[in-house]
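Run log // design_07
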């Protein structure tokens, strides 16, 4: 899928761990990512934007 990123690339681009991305998805802070036939998550660019937003909010003192 063009324009979609595996979880490891999302984590690397956002400077967070893969577990953090999974946690945000479990907490519904990210929409559930579609999966490939091999069950790999694929995130769109909006997920990266949202993680950056979450991290900025945390830097300002907001909690999850």
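design_07 sequence
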């Amino acid at each position: 899928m063009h324009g979609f990123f595996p979880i490891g690339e999302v984590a690397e681009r956002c400077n967070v761990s893969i577990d953090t991305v999974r946690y945000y998805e479990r907490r519904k802070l990210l929409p559930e990512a579609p999966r490939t036939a091999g069950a790999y998550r694929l995130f769109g660019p909006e997920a990266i934007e949202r993680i950056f937003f979450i991290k900025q909010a945390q830097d300002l003192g907001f909690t999850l």
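The chain has a mean pLDDT of 94.
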